[in-house]
Structure formats: structure tokens, C-alpha cells
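Summary: Need help interpreting a holo structure output

Steps to reproduce:
1. Submit the protein chain below together with the SMILES for guanosine-5'-triphosphate.
2. Request a joint structure prediction with the ligand placed.
3. Inspect the C-alpha cell block that comes back.

Expected: a single structure record containing both the chain and the bound molecule.
Actual: see attached output.

Input attached:
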Amino acid sequence: MKRHFTIGMAGHIDHGKTSLTKVLTNVDTDRLKEEKERQISIELGFAPLYENEDMQVSVVDVPGHERFIRQMIAGVAGIDLVVLAVAADEGVMPQTKEHLEILGFLGIKKGIVAITKIDKVEEDFLSLVKGEIMLELEGSVFENSPVAMLDSLSGKGIEDIRQLILDELGTLEPRDTKGPFRLPVDQVFTVKGQGTVVRGTVYEGSVKEGESLIILPNHIETKARQLQIHHKPAMQAFAGQRAAVNLSGIAKEEIRRGDVLVSSEHFNVTKCLDVSLRSSSDLDHIVKQRTPIKCYIGTSEVMGRIVFFDRNEIGAEHEEVLCQLRLEEEIVTKRGDRFILRRPSPQETIGGGWVIDPMGDKYRFGTKTIEELAKKKAGNPKERIISALMEEKGLSIQDLIKRTSLNESEVKTVLDQEEFLSYSSGYYTAQNIIENVTEEIYDRLMEYQQAFPMRPGINKAEAVQAMQDAFPKSLLDFVLKRGEEEGAWKRNGQFFSTAVFSPHVPANWSKRVEGMLQAIKAEGLQVKYLDNYMEDAGIPDTLRTELTYFFTEQRLLVPLDGQFHLSAERFDEAVAKLKSQTADSFEVGAAKEILGLSRKFIIPFLEKLDSERITRREGNIRVWVK
Ligand SMILES: Nc1nc2c(ncn2[C@@H]2O[C@H](COP(=O)(O)OP(=O)(O)OP(=O)(O)O)[C@@H](O)[C@H]2O)c(=O)[nH]1
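--- attached output ---
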């Protein structure tokens, strides 16, 4: 398959980037009128450099002026190789250095040094000039890079650098064009008769004409109606290619630079990132805890703050710091993405680094958090999955792909291992999380039983409700069922209790309660209000509701109309007696006589029979049902 590469041009203002691009590609990237007038490249200029059956190469001419560093960051994201232009007559200048550092932050590994304007230096001095420049480049990505000596005006050295570029590109690993498609938008415009077009470098994956796409972070659905690569129609655009995508059904106002075009929901929309940060070696001020920053990531530029967990400030020490970025707006990112932080004003590079976890959380200040972040940073696929599961307890495959930035097959390979299991269709967790949830549920049952020994256990809905903030509901359902099957607890209707538990009166009250039940039983069917017996037995108010519930639930007493509570034994005897002395049905008068009850007691008693479906009332008579 054809490979696609983008080459970036970096270097100090006026060091010949645009001229070199022009002689290499025959395209004048300084194409805007304003640029022509001011002789400064304002917009990023892209031009095709080379194409054969195996590869297609384009150049992005990155402007050199300090003010335009933001554009350089947007352009460099997605670049395979950087050509650093250094004018022979000036050598390495301050802005060259800033570019070098930014390239380092952006993780650019391959470079070529183009020493331009060699016609401006005596030939005898050239090797000296070259030596000096290479000395300045020590420690940067260009330290061991091939060097070309050029005169862009006469074309001297141009064929050498073209060959160097192709040779270097040949040594690069192919970009992943198989994964989900992502294109950070850097330009949005309307084309007459076509509608909205966005342009950017395809970061990963590929896109086909007609494909359904999503614009993040606003989740707007759209379609790639047409594709263009370097102003020529194309059926498909691949990672590394600069592409223009004509989108259907979208107004220009709905999209802006910094938005990201994706093919699936595999990407995180986030405002809080765990990152590895290195400060700039030129940083001349202290960056304090929660300092406002401007974060450049992909093509987005968002204000935010740095949050440290093991210090309150950083200087120019350049060491790696694990910290967090809290942004004011949502961005789209995944693990491994590079970013640059700048001071909002005066504009100055603070540092840069890469995203460890795109979905950061609130953590405590202290070494424990740093240890966790270090683990996350080092994490192999399995550790990353475990760490995401530990935070969320259970996740779908889609969520795991987002959280870990692994691809689908990597996620599935890890989930196939025995430490993981599916608790609901498509949702996974780890065995030890199941154990933790089991323990937590068990502890809750024990606590509940201690607090309410007279209740049959904890109501399922209540238990799920109480734990739903910490665990997904379907995971709780799964663990409740599994614990029941394994005998960790038992279920009685809607109630769960530990396996050996049965509701009981607390030992210190059992004697009095027993006496009270005897007293109620002794009174037969003509009882006083339950409260009177409680009073007589010296049962405190606080216990009465629980006890009443217990008596009914355990069927020690049968409540009539909520006022009287009969001993269950006496109630059953009365039902048996009535049944034995009547035929299929009976009238109130007959029941009164048989049971020797006054109207005050017989009516609630018979209504109880109806409500228990022992009898059925039909006008004046009651028919036995069972
Ligand atoms: N003599 C000589 N002049 C050159 C050479 N390359 C570029 N120039 C001149 O240097 C000036 C700046 O060149 P550009 O190519 O625009 O430089 P640039 O780095 O793209 O500048 P910015 O885009 O503004 O950062 C122009 O006047 C060019 O004609 C060269 O090899 N020899």
C-alpha cells in the first residue's frame, strides 16, 4: 500500500524555508498576498513534494516568526520528518532553539539539517560554519541528522536534499492507517456550490469518500461527501496525508479549528488530562501550582491550569513532572498525544509533554498520587486496562478503548485473560474487583443486620441505590446474583441477608417480648391495642415500630385493620373453627356467634379474611376461597 508522509520546515525567520519548499515542490507556499507583501508566511503552506507508486510526500512550510509558533504546533502534529533550515550566514538563532525544543516536546525523532544560503558565505568557511551549527544542535533531534548544503536561488544542493529526504523517509515505520480515523481540523471554509470543507492532517487511520463521521467534541454527525488531497479529488485519505474533507449537512459555523473529525466514538472528549511534562530549558520564570496556561494539542488551543501533586512550582530544571492539566474547554485526545504549554501572556513556551491518561480525575496532593501516575505512565496494556477498571469498576470494550488508547484487538486480547470477566453483555471487569464488590456487599449486609436485627435483610433496591455511585448497577446485579449462587448470602424475596442470618429480637429484649406475646395470646381474639401491651412490657418507643414490623413479617402476630394485633396462633384457630362450623359461605351474624365476638372485633377480623383471600365477600355473605 502507498505510504504517505509529511515533512515539516522549521527554522528562524528568513532562513530560507519557503524558498527551499518552492525549489523542491514548485509551489510558492508564501501564496497569500499579505505574505507576499510582508515576505512572511502567515498560513501554513502545504505542497506535494514527491509521489511514486510506493509513497506520497508533502511539505508543510512552517512559519518561523515567534508570533506564529501556534501555527507551527498545529502543523507539526502529524509530521514525519523535519527539515531545519539554518542560514549559513547567521547560524543557529534563538528562534531556531525554541523550535528545536518544541520539536522535542512534540516527539519528532527524525530530522535533516538544511544549511541554506551557502552562496552568502565564502566557500573556504563552509565546513567551519557547518561545524559550528552542528555543535549548537547537539542534544537535539538533529544531533546526528544528515546535513545538506544549499543555495535555493541557484538550485545548488537541491537534488542532494531531495535524496536525503527520500532516504530518511524510507527508514520510517509505517503509520497506523488501520485504526480509527482522526483528523484534527485546522482550517474550516466554504466552497461555493459545495458547502463546508475542513482541512487538516490525518493523524491516524483513514477516511473514505461517503463515510459517516463525527465531529468532536460536540458529537455532530456528518458525512465525508468528497475528499481532496492537494486540491485533487481522492477516494481515500490516509494517516499522514493532508486532506480537505467536504462535509455534508454542516454549516461552517458549527465547526472550528481544534475540533476533531473521527470515524467512531473511540476518542475521549475531556477537560482533565494526566500528563508527563517537561519544562522548557529557557523558562525564565517560576510556574506555580494552578498557573494559567494555554495548552496546544492537535490543532486546539485551550486555556487551563497546571495542577501539581508533589510540588508547588517548577522552574527551568527540565526534569519530567507527572501532573495534570485542567482545561476550560473540552478537547479530543488519547494516550500518547503530545502537547505544548505556553504562557498566555507574554507568549512564551513553558514546556511540553505527552498525555498519560486522557481522563484524569481529582487526586490528592502527595506521593501516592505520583506513584499511581507513574504506574499509569509505565503501564503495559494489561496494567492500563486494570487501572481504568479500578477507577470505573466496570467498562464496555468501547470505553476501554477510549480510556486506555489501546486498539480493539489489544483490549480483547487482555480481556481474554482469566483475571477478567464479562458481567453483562459487552461489559467487563476484573476478578479482584468482583471480590472487592462482594466484600463490600457482605460488609453492608453485616452492618445492616446489626442495625436492624429484626428486619429480614437489606432490600435489594436499597442496597443497589446505596452503592450505585461507586459501582455500575449491572455490576451490582451481577455480584448480588453470583454471591447468592455461591452461598455468600441468601435472598428472601426482595431481601438479602448473610447466609446464616435470621431476623431476631435483640437478646436483651427477648424476655420481655416473649412475655408480651404470651399476654396477647392469652387474650385470644379480643385484644387491646398493641401499644398497650408494649407499654405494659416496658418496650421503649424507639423499638416499637421495628418490633411491630418483625411480628408481622415473622407472622407472630396478625394485624387487623392496623389497630389490633392477634396472636397468629389464635387467628389460625379462629379461622379453623369458623370454617368447621360453616358450609361454603356464611353471614356476619353467624361468624359473630360462632367466635363469640362483638361487632368491634368481628368486622376487622372478617375483612382480614377477605384481604388474605381466605374468604371473598359477596354482599352480605362471605364465601370460603381456601
Ligand atoms: N542568497 C540566498 N538567498 C536565499 C536563499 N534562500 C532564501 N533566500 C532569501 O532569503 C529570504 C527569506 O527566504 P524565505 O524562504 O522566505 O525564508 P523563510 O524562512 O521561509 O521565512 P519566513 O517564512 O518569513 O520565516 C528571501 O528573500 C529569499 O529570497 C539562498 O539559498 N540564498
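--- end attachment ---

Reviewer comment: Residues 11, 13-19, 39-41, 63-65, 85, 116-117, 119-120, 150-153 surround guanosine-5'-triphosphate (CB under 6 Å). The longest strand covers residues 320-333.
Status: needs-info
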